[in-house]
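hey can u check if this looks right to u? its 76 residues, i copy pasted from the old doc so theres a chance i mangled smth
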Amino acid sequence: VETITSMEQYQAFWVGLTKVAPKGIRADTQDVANAAAGIIASVKASRVLDDADNVSRMQLVAARSGIPTWASKYCK
């Protein structure tokens, strides 16, 4: 339960960011929130937690997004 709660808090954080994200990264921010929601749903349904796979999935979503490039350009 603690793990699910932590995962839900992480996902809620990204949902919150989506609401305030600049237009240039709003869709990417939503993609991260959606990926987290998908992992949560999978863990709840299967009751199996594969941390390495979940981290890999989140890293892939982040790598595909424009968030790192946007942050390096605008967050100095």
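The first helix runs from residue 2 to 20.
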